[in-house]
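Deliverable D5.2: sample structural annotation.
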Amino acid sequence: MKSPGWKLLTRRWIWLLLGGIALLLLAIPAWGAEQKGATAGRPAQVHLADHGDVVAGDGTRVPEADVQLSAPAASQGEGIAGGLDVPVDEVGSQPDPRPRVAGSLTGSWYDFISFQICRDVDTSVVPYECIGETNSFSCDDDYAHFLGILGNIYDAPDFDNVIMELYSPEGYYSQCTFQVADPPAGHYYSSYSLRCRAGIAGTQKVDHPGAWHTDFLVYDNGQWRREASKPWQLICGATPTPTTTECPGATTRTYVTTQDNENNSHTGYADGDMGPDPDCIFRNDSRHPIEFNIYVPSLSPPFSWATLSLRVWDVDEEAQDCPERDTVYFNGNFVGYLRGANDTWSTSGPYDINPSWVRQGNNLVEIQVNTTGCLGSQGQERWCVGVKQGTLQLEGGSGAAYKRSFFKSPECWPP
């Protein structure tokens, strides 16, 4: 038989249980509202689309063109630098030091397209086009033109951001400075042409003949990137000097190179194997063979024959046991062997040059030293050569003359 106390305890537990359930039912809505508010305060989960779209923070898709400058623009344009024809006739001071790095082909706000040295520039087309690309100028030339092309301009810095620096054989000379314009919002420039026009004749440049170079630098990510460096020659001794011969109409044009302007890779950089005070180059020298260019600005008027002469040092062609043999080539064509004497300056030549071998522009002269392989008593290379000058003469052009009868006068005959 159960006592009355047990029934009372059971009732109390039932009431406690019911009270707990009631409290729990009252707490659940408040807790749910709190969690719902916390969820609403978080950003929605972001997913990248499969085809390059961008998903916004609220989960809606936004067209790529609205958020990325690299999207195709509604219109494309070509920009031209405000400093298009910046003269650089006067020698300037050394520019402020700037950090330099070897630049990649593509920057953060541009693509590097090209950099050329030209005799002129066609500004009637977009982008500009180089007329007569070259790496050599005469001191009588009016201008040298330097043409840089950038592409895909999106967000250019709002200050001077492109520089072309000119360096003479003695060092920094002057520069052209440009500011590439920032395109309108939502657009970009597909190409951007920059030309630096540098006067030559009548300027102080003619006092600095020899090996020049021009650097093309672009400001990007807090530093100057050297996107290109182009070598070129300023030749004052190679200016044609027509001289009238005995018969009117015939001329001799002379072109001279006294400064090194070429290397074994034929990239237009001097490698120091010839010049006014040249080294004596052995066959195993890293600079061998000896090479340089003689610049001919024009093949007009026509000429009927050509000759090449070289000023050389220490050609032991008369050595009894193993005569020195150094071969000479003109634009890849064999023309003969060097002539000279031991430890002496000699004029070797003139060598007859086939007129068809002569080119407008650079003409390559190459000298192979000690082609017979003469060795010294210790097995070392025996012969070396120094070259200080090359001279090319183009002669004739008045046509073949003939005599109609035989008597002493006149000395000149009509063609």
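Annotation notes: The first helix runs from residue 4 to 41. The radius of gyration is 39 Å.
The annotation will be released with the project's public dataset once the embargo ends.
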